Amino acid sequence: MNINDFPMLKEDLIYLDNGATTLKPQCVIDKITEYYTKYSANAHRGDYDISFKVDQEYEVSREIVRKFINARFKEEVVFTSGTTESLNMIATGFFGKFIEPNDEILITQSEHASNVLPWFRLVTEKGAIVKYIPLDNNHYVTLENVKKSITPNTKVISLASITNVIGDERPIKEICKLAHENNIFVVMDGAQSVPHRKTDVQDLDVDFLAFSGHKMCGPTGIGILYGKKELLEEMEPQNLGGGMNESFDSPTEVYLKDLPTRLEAGTPNIAGAIGLGKAISYLESIGMDRIEDYEKRLRKYAINKLICLPHLDILNIESDSGIISFNVNDVFSQDVAYYLNKYKICVRAGNHCAKILNQETGVQNSLRVSLYFYNTESDIDNLVELLSNKEKIMEEML
Amino acid sequence: MESREIIMKHYISSPYKKSLGKTNESYQKITTKSDSCIDHLDIFIKLEKDRIVDASFSGEACAIATSSCSILLENCINKKISEIKKIIENFENMINEKTYNEEELHEAVVFKDIVKQGNRKACAYLPYKGLKKIVDKEL
Known about the structure:
A: Aspartate Aminotransferase, domain 1, 38% helix, B: four-stranded antiparallel beta sheet
């Protein structure tokens, strides 16, 4: 769908690494260029017209994000540099304040590093305990296993709504209900889900949500932290400085601004925020439901072809997303990626930042194909054709 | 033998690819990892005075990094640290398109054209990056 909107796709390129980052449509590029060429002033300084225009555009973007995830208030939408920063702010800035020794944090072994390491810090610095919810045979999280993992000490459950290697979708809404009945907070890492399907934070009832702009046709270096207002009010700003303070006279007399500005110290990534707003409007013009349906159909098309190749070991034949992880038997994943690169096919090889997933799957590294709405059946045909001959891969991988 | 055959020989059946684990104390272990990809090599070196008398490696890495490591170790066994320093420098000169001695590279010359594939230069160089740590420590 919409291939012509993407300058990169005018080149002879098959881009199948959308889990890492996505291509940018012309309208997003134009929107960023417009800021840099027509009103490139700082924010929060409405003394002159172009600065006033910056504030307007910046806040319009925030409102676009609010509506997109159906947050109740604009104050619940904080611009960050991306999912990683958002998750660090949640772990350190919120939970760091309250967590006590032996409090338990529930995650899984298939989380991305950004949803593991910030919690590990609470283990080393606060004496908290990180526990892993067991996954089922398909590496899925079941409500039953969440239930079994909860103890009186559980304080927070932090999960990717869709994981970045297996691509399974977690029952976040049901988990939130269960967690809240037990006074447990839920953090949702939406990096791999928000770009690909409708997200409604009120319906899910998540306490915090983190996602990135660049994985949804937006610029790099911009992302979102969503938090319920009453919780964000309690969050300790990780960065102090310009823009976020009301006034200060001495170390003990520092007064901070209200949400969300309090959590956005320094000159924000203005171009990024404005670009993200445009990217979201663009996705909405296509329709999130259509994007989800299209990707699911395309994945099915791909899987039906890939399972016919006997020398392929697919980690996730079943999956709810556009992610397919696999290995070519006896060939190192990176060598396969180099081989595909010779034919201008971009796929990722590696552990995909899910460095403890191997304890679960027994597979250290894999190739990952991750789809987006601008991929086509012809992209898949080209991929399958190149993977169909193992001798050719071995012959040409150097 | 063609370059491709030499690389595949060292990749598929390197005589130096075996893990010595942590138990063998007469060997020094150096881990070398790529910043940009998943190549990960553990190199095990046995030194007697200033000479490498035995070496092996293990890990998960692509064909280029694996074969490059195997060839490097082959070239280094029974060499003095000072000679290994020269081997490393000569290889660096080759991949950085400076003047180098082709003869002294032995089979490592197969990576001569690797500089043309920017992303694979780091793979070929990975074992050298690791061994350099030992050389710098011992010299």
